Automatic annotation (TrEMBL):
It comes from Pseudomonas fluorescens. PANTHER family: D-THREO-ALDOSE 1-DEHYDROGENASE (PTHR43312), NADP-DEPENDENT OXIDOREDUCTASE DOMAIN-CONTAINING PROTEIN (PTHR43312:SF1). It holds the Pfam family Aldo_ket_red. This is NADP-dependent oxidoreductase domain-containing protein. SUPFAM superfamilies: NAD(P)-linked oxidoreductase.
Length: 270
């Protein structure tokens, strides 16, 4: 039996003109192995391993790739790895968080936002980035109301350097505020954490996009014997019409294939 793929299951990213696979590939593990919240340690893949993973993901019908300046060397590695494939990928990156020498810091000023996007364009070797999300430090409303980050992203969108923008936050209030003026919210939503569901409800009602982070609780989901936690997780996610795609940060091709097959099965059954 052939491996199920997601090619026929791409869907709109809210009201943008982007179409994305229901599963996206997170790339923190391509760039950094410090300060990550996974239950098991891992080795950062070399270029050959990373290239094979990306090719495998693309062949499985994944077109959404998620990176960030705070993901160590991720952006710098993806630029060369994706050469000649720009039309095949919807690229999501971030602004606001830097990760240097094992420490995170945040800057939501207009100057840093513009610098960060210009740097990401260079690193990713592209003329535009499909979606830029604000990497919140948890003070969601303060960032949105008291900094220039959203206004700067709106200007960068008008200039054609980004095609959409949004917010990767940690609160319901922040997520809804972010969607009022932006294109997308990235929320935590899984079998363990469902506090941000009102953001997804708001997005569904207003035609905005939601991407889900930690869809599998960063590998921490455990259920009763005989229940597949991956299937249960994706059933929860994709029964909600507000969710466009779930970002999964695996570097294991077998895990990726299993995730894709499960999502394909869940969506075709629905």
């Amino acid at each position: 039996m052939s491996q199920p793929t997601l090619h026929e299951l791409h869907r709109p990213l809210g009201s943008t003109d982007l179409s994305v696979s229901p599963l996206g590939l997170g790339t923190v593990k391509l760039g950094r192995d410090q300060g990550v919240k996974y239950p098991n340690g891992f080795k950062i893949p070399d270029d050959d391993e990373a290239r094979m993973l990306l090719t495998f993901a693309r062949n499985l019908g994944i077109n959404l790739i998620d990176t960030a300046p705070a993901y160590g060397q991720s952006e710098e590695r993806l630029g060369p790895l994706l050469r000649g494939q720009r039309q095949d990928w919807v690229i999501v990156s971030k602004v606001g968080e830097e990760f240097v020498d094992g420490q995170s810091s945040h800057d939501f000023s207009a100057a840093h936002t513009r610098l960060s996007v210009e740097r990401s364009l260079q690193r990713l070797e592209t003329d535009y980035i499909d979606l830029i999300l604000v990497h919140s430090d948890g003070n969601d409303l303060e960032i949105l109301q008291g900094s220039e980050v959203y206004a700067t992203l709106a200007a960068l969108k008008a200039e054609g350097k980004i095609r959409g923008f949004g917010f990767s936050g940690k609160t319901v209030e922040g997520g809804i505020k972010a969607l009022e003026q932006g294109d997308c919210a990235m929320v935590t939503y899984n079998l363990n954490e469902q506090n941000e569901k009102p953001v997804i409800d708001y997005a569904a009602a207003h035609g905005k996009a939601v991407l889900v982070k930690k869809a599998l609780a960063s590998g921490h989901v455990c259920l009763s014997p005989g229940v597949d936690p991956v299937r249960a997780s994706f059933e929860l996610l994709f029964e909600h019409p507000g969710i466009a795609s779930a970002i999964v940060g695996t570097i294991n091709p077998l895990h990726l294939a299993h995730n894709v097959a499960t999502v394909a099965n869940v969506l075709r059954r629905n």
